[in-house]
Amino acid sequence: MQEDFQKLKQTAERDFRKVQTLEELEALKVKFLGRNSFLAQFSKKIPLLEPSLRPQAGRLLNEAKSFITALWQERKKELNLQQDKIDLSFPSYSLRRAKLHPLTLVIREICSIFERIGFEIQEGREIEDEWHNFTALNIPLEHPSRDAFDTFYLNIPSKRYKYLLRSHTSPSQIRLMRKRKPPLAFVVPGRVYRPDNMDASHSFMFHQIEGFAVDKDINFSHLKGVLAYFVQNLFSSEVKLRFRPHFFPFTEPSAEVDISCFICKGKGCSVCKKSGWLEILGCGMIHPEVLSSCGISPKKYQGFAFGMGVERITMLKYRINDIRLFFENDLRFLEQFYEV
Ligand code: DAH
User: Fold this and answer.
1) What is the atom index within ligand 1 of the atom nearest the CA of 211?
2) pLDDT of residue 91 exceeding 90
3) CB-CB neighbours of 281 under 10 Å
């Protein structure tokens, strides 16, 4: 009997050494300690033995059980450790870092330039109504921009308003002037929509940044100073500005602003079409009618406003020649811009 147990322990020791996986180990445990194991069978037979032999048999049985259980536990610990082991020399996956979309980069850069001189950044709404998008901005009823060829009208039933996708960010001026009291200085970036056919320089959705300030004694030279600070920070400190008289219904006087071409330094190149100048935004002094429709007295307050197209500025800054590249999500294009 003693010999049988000795053998059993030896086989168990050898077998437990050999196993390499946790599954094999569990199978061995069943073999040596399970219901059909030699030990289980043996314990059933003890009561049938002669009484004088029973104590020794019991001792042998218990001793073998704890011996094998210890073998099992020890091997389990070893296999678990092996499984959790980390190979520090193993090459890791290379993580592809996200980059910001070029339009996001430029919007952030422009906003931060204006923030440095006290402008607050706000976002307007993309679904607007006719009153905010046109009427309050002094755009007459017969103006062609109100036409369905130039504005996306929405089929939202309402007795009060015709709803539309805003065709410019200027209605945000109206909302902010009606909500806040002067002094005001805001910059509003956002998407705008116009039913244009897509080509290298047109898209039915694009981005604008609107800016405006209202206070007592605001005049055109404040506008010039703010815009000079802006373009010199965005492009280069050597850039010159040129204000060309223009017309916008919501500003009087109005101007379009050109910057000296920062690529050829004004000598004339293909980007500025040999003129030496690049048009970058529209601006002017807020029309008294516009102030009035926002409940601000034009006798007490004046303001300036400006609006620019983000795609155009981004195309100039990064020398991109097709607006469609911004919206096609081709990684070969998008990956060329700065990391976060
Ligand atoms: N809203 C004009 C457009 O979409 C841009 C613009 C021009 C905005 C002059 C202004 C401004 O605030 O003063 O073409």
Assistant:
1) 12
2) no
3) 21
pTM of the model: 0.74
Residues 164-185: tens digit of each pLDDT: 999 999 999 999 999 999 999 9
> Given the CA of residue 169, which atom of ligand 1 is nearest to it?
1
Which of 248, 257, 285, 304 should be mutated for ligand 1, with most atoms under 8 A from CB? 248
Q: Is the peptide bond before 249 cis (omega within 30 degrees of 0)?
A: no
pLDDT of 340 above 60: no
In contact, 210 and 331? CB cutoff 8 Å: no
Burial environment of residue 86 by CB neighbours within 10 A (0 to 12, 13 to 18, 19 or more): exposed
Q: Among 145, 146, 168, say which to mutate for ligand 1: greatest number of ligand atoms within 8 Å of CB.
A: 168
Q: Which of 132, 306, 311, 313 to mutate to test the pocket of ligand 1 (most atoms within 8 A of CB)?
A: 306
Say yes or no: CB of residue 311 within 6 Å of ligand 1: no
Going from the Cα of 283 to the center of ligand 1, the distance in angstroms, rounded, reads 6
pLDDT confidence band for 339 (50 / 70 / 90): low
Give dist(CA 319, CA 313) in Å, integer: 10
Average pLDDT, stretch 226-239? 96
CA atoms within 13 A of residue 131's CA, in its CB half-sphere: 5
Which residue bears the tokens 């870092």? 97
Q: Is the CB of 168 under 6 A from ligand 1?
A: yes
127-129 and 163-165 beta bridge pairing: antiparallel
